[in-house]
# Entry
Amino acid sequence: MTEPNKTVSQSTNGHARVLEGKVIIVTGAGGGIGRESCRVLAAAGARLIVSDRSEAEGLATQALLKIEGFASDFVSADVSSETSVQSLVARTVELHGRLDGAFNNAGVEAANKPLADLTLAEWEHGIRVDLTGVFLCLKYQIPAMLASGGGSIVNTASGLARIAVPGQAEYIAAKTGVVGLTRAAAMDYGARGIRVNAILPGVIRTPMISRLSEMPETAAMFSQLRQRHILQRFGEPSEIGEAAKWLLSDAASFVQGTEIVVDGGVLAN
# Structure
């Protein structure tokens, strides 16, 4: 087993270490929301399993955490592969003897095509990663948490589970499915000590969003989306990490089967 994170009374942002000693998997940890969330969760005391399909990106996140003084383990995993997800959870238990939480954040961007222009392969890829990937994570995380006495799972959905924008059909379908899957898992396992909730981000200023917002074919759409945020800005990846931190902590002990909207006011319009 790896050593726990350094012992201090508060995290680097001044907040209490509400995840002290909890073993937590973060998928899609190689960049964007995943990387910044790892920083937030590690600062809150979590013992992280950093996971990403890209070994280079995942190890970069682990190296960043090490520079900041936090121990973590990297386990490469492709959430669209059942054997890969099974191995991720098994390795976590092997390393730490338990699993207390998971932030199922891995995802893939849409093909940015109108629905009828999507190929079947593009549709199936989006659904496989963004929806089936969450199912596979739940399928193997839940038994590990039951063996550990319970836990908390947070799934990254999207504000696009509630509203639609052009060219996002497979993404919208998958993220809407994640919301339903979250409720189903919460219903099945809440009485056995496992909480399952989802976060619905607005547009978050990740490298992917920065790139898309500058592409000629999508720049106008992102300009309109920015104006729809009541706060008149896109969110920061760490702001999603803060929401995940709360849901993963015992402070959210009565929160079950719901969606936390973190969107700067888009859905309030």
About this structure: Residues 19 and 45 are 5 Å apart (CA to CA).
